[in-house]
Amino acid sequence: MTKQYDQAYFERWYRDPALKDQAIGGTARLARKVAMAVATAEYHLERPIRTVLDIGCGEGVWRAPLLKLRPRISYLGFDSSQYAIERFGPRRNLHYARFGDFEHLRPCAPVDLLVCADVMHYLDTRELDRGLPALAELCHGVAFLETFTREDGIDGDTHGFKRRPAKFYRQRLEALGLTPLGSHLWLSPALSDDTAALERPA
Fold first, then answer.
1. pTM (whole model) above 0.70
2. What's the superkingdom here (predicted)?
3. Which band of pLDDT confidence, cut at 50, 70 and 90, is reported for residue 1?
């Protein structure tokens, strides 16, 4: 059965009271992720971030905590959920696109923070490889690419989860010039020459 990112999906995984803060969209957990990504991007850029592109944004849940930290930030999101775009698109600046569409889609100049959270491990390899180059080309600062592998203990939504080894993603992202920083964070090729040796994993 094809996975449907409809209202029922978001209610189940993002707002089910039984999951409390362990839900994908738990507010405290999300706030910590956003704060970490913003701080890391600003550390490497040496200035406040101004622009964010969220690929696979769902309902655009990163937007509110980003604006709380940086009220003047420009946030742009893309997702393949017709429900999310129809319901939240105009208010949250969300637009329809599949990940593979980024083979050609370049909707903005490279951003300070690029987000692609909880997306890549659900994609078929062909679609993943089509869209991957955009992650490096559209990021001028830091990318938060939250991705899980077969080495991880996975709880929650396992429907359609691709049990790939970590090296599958690491090899592809590093081939694009992205530098791993840890905690799902990757440094843009534009800044890769500006880091000290011990800022990067061995």
1. yes
2. Bacteria
3. very low
